[in-house]
Amino acid sequence: MTGLRWGILATGGIAHAFTSDLRTAGLDVAAVGSRSAASAQRFADEFGIERANGSYEALAADPDVDIVYIATPHPAHAENAIAMLEAGKHVLVEKPFTLTAAEAAAVREVARRKGLLAMEAMWTRYLPHMVRIRTLIAEGALGEVRTVFADHTQKITADPSHRLNALELGGGALLDLGIYPVSFVWDVLGAPSSVRAVARLAETGADAEVATVMTHGSGAVSSTVSSSRAAGPNTAHVVGTEGRIDIDRTWYAPTTFRLTAPDGTVREEFVSDVDGRGMQYQALAAERIIAEGRTDSDELPLDESVAIMGTLDDIRAQIGVRYPQEA
Question: Does residue 72 sit within a domain?
Fold first, then answer.
């Protein structure tokens, strides 16, 4: 442990979930920053945080903060991350890393110039069951991986005023939900060599459902589905020539999976034993990386986060979704 002092930027629902898990792991939450002094103080009171900053600028200037968790809506991620990096602080940026690949590359440039960690908070990659799955694949337990399937489908809201349906807020199922299965496909199969996407757009022009089929350099294929209007199984499957892994609901959170042979024999069953939601694992990884004197994640390198944003850009181009912030 490095004894890093965490700052929390923004006080919405995801910030609450993350901070609760930081407390579960016994990590040091030193300060919170919000655009509202009252909101920052309420958050600080809830979690026993010493300093409540009534602006993001004040959090950036706080000398007793080493690393900042960026929990704002994704159109603000790049601006907020760059501000914290320029102030000399490491950043853990809530997924999706940014709104576009160009923004992601801009964050990467600043992080490398400053010699600081900029890491995407794709918490799923750091969960124990995902660590075990990567080990099994690397050991050849599945033989040659041929196919990956994953969905992230929830019935959230059709309210056109909700941020999920507002293009100016980066709304749409893809960036909020689809990022999970797309990142998972990248994790297992690497960069896609081709991407095909279809979607149903909501009344506001934001994507309500998105499906993808991708091919990969090994010859493997993958498919993903995301939806904000209907709840599906939320399972994932990795299929190889010598076996398959079936990840149960909800696959991107702590859960169970089975390794099954082609004849149906279950070779291994994994059951997660995790305190809280499991978001602390990414924080622990960030602390470990910094303690080792490194500035990049093995589980999700910064270059990969930038490239995944490129895949999301490609998908959006195919389905006809463009944000007002894009030139």
Answer: yes
